[in-house]
Fold:
Amino acid sequence: MGGTQATQIRSLLLEAADAIDRANAIVSTLDSGDRVLLALPLDEISSALHFELLQKLYLRYPGLAEEGEGWNGTMV
Structure:
């Protein structure tokens, strides 16, 4: 995987994280039965995205986490 691919993957993962956050906001307004049904799976997906996928990407490309969206794809 190159720096450009890592940047693209990071961007898509952050978009997914935003979508999950928006879904969680809606889920929090549901009645308790529906909230219980959806809240835990959304939390599990969010945790996996942040603490497994993004963390591994940032460990492989530390500059990606430090530079954010403007990172130029070069390795540190």
